[in-house]
Every structure is written in C-alpha cells, then in structure tokens.
C-alpha cells in the first residue's frame, strides 16, 4: 500500500521577502505622492489668503479715497487697517488664519540672538502683528534725502497712480 504524502502549500522565505519589498516600494511611492499633494494644498491655501488680502486692500483703498494703507510701519500693521474690510472683530491674534501662511512653521529672529531659528511661525509672534505676510509699504519713513532714490513701496499712494498694478507686489 502506498502512502500519499500531502504537502501543505506555504510561502517560502524568498517569496515573503519579495512581497515585503513590493509593499515597501508601493508605500514609498504613495507617501511621496501624498507629500506632493500636501504641498499643493498649502500653496493653494496661501494663494487664496493672498487673494483675499489683496481684495481687502482694494476695498480699503475704495473706502479711503483711493489711498493705499498708510501710517507708522504700514508693512507690519496694515492688517489693523484691513480688519473691518475682512469682517474680523476683536483684538488681533495668531488665530486670524487668513493672515497665516500654512507653510509658515518657523522663522528666524531679528531680535536678540541674530539668526536664531524660532520653532513657531511668524504669524504666531505678536511683534509681527500676527501675520505671515508683509504689505509693500517700505516707502514710508524712509528718511531719504531729495537726491536719493525713493523706495518703491505703495503705502499712502493713490491706487490709481500705480502704473502696472498686475506687476506690482501688494502683499
């Protein structure tokens, strides 16, 4: 009488290693695609924030006889002038998400230790009026003489006086 020997089907070690390698490769490809999508999402949010801020600047100019935001340090404190046009109420805070670029996760300090890397975004630092963005207002308080070239900022200028608005940086 012949005995039949039955072998159980099982994976060999080589087959298991090949399967793990394929799964690892697919996971690496998926993670890189997710990372790229996350970067695209951040850029889209930042672009949307800038568009809304630029619309608020335009509304501010319309309400202010066509004059761009002005005053002391307009490149930092323009946000306070825009709050009514953006329906923001209460004191300025780091929770004003429209002024927070999603890629703003750290900044370098210009106070104290030079070039110290700080772990929070610039919009979380109250010295920057809780904003990741700056307004192009560097023509104010420039202390330049009459023969020196003037800075190219737009603070206090008539919006209509900007020759090429599509090529002029607002924020």
Low-confidence segments, given as residue ranges, are: none
Proportion of strand residues: under 5%
Task: Please tally the helical runs, counting DSSP H or I stretches of 4 or more residues.
Answer: 2
Global mean pLDDT: 81
Class per helix and strand makeup: mainly alpha
**Cα radius of gyration in angstroms:** 28 Å
The biggest sheet, with number of strands, parallel, antiparallel or mixed sense and barrel status, is: 2 strands, antiparallel
Q: Please write the string of helix (H) and strand (E) elements.
A: HHEE
Read across the widest sheet, the strand sequence of neighbours is 1-2
Range of helix content: 25-40%
Shape: elongated
Query: Separation of termini?
Result: 92 Å
Work out the number of β strands: 2
Explain what this protein looks like in three dimensions.
The protein is mostly helical. 35% of the residues lie in helices and 2% in strands. It has 2 helices and 2 strands. It has helices spanning 13-63, 74-82; strands spanning 107-108, 117-118. Strands 1-2 form a two-stranded antiparallel ribbon. A hairpin with an 8-residue loop joins strand 1 (107-108) and strand 2 (117-118).
Summarize the structure.
By secondary structure, the protein is an all-alpha fold. Helix content is 35%, strand content 2%.
């Amino acid at each position: 009488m012949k005995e039949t020997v039955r072998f159980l089907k099982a994976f060999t070690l080589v087959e298991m290693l090949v399967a793990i390698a394929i799964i690892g490769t697919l996971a690496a490809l998926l993670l890189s695609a997710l990372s790229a999508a996350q970067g695209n999402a951040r850029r889209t949010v930042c672009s949307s924030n800038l568009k809304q801020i630029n619309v608020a600047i335009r509304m501010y100019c319309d309400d202010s006889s066509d004059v761009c935001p002005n005053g002391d340090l307009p490149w930092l404190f323009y946000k306070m002038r825009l709050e009514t046009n953006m329906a923001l109420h209460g004191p300025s805070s780091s929770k004003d998400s429209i002024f927070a670029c999603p890629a703003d996760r750290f900044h370098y300090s210009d106070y104290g230790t030079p070039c110290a890397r700080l772990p929070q975004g610039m919009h979380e630092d109250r010295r920057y009026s809780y904003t990741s963005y700056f307004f192009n207002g560097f023509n104010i308080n420039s202390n330049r003489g009459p023969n020196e070239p003037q800075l190219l900022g737009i603070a206090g200028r008539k919006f209509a006086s900007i020759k090429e608005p599509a090529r002029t940086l607002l924020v």
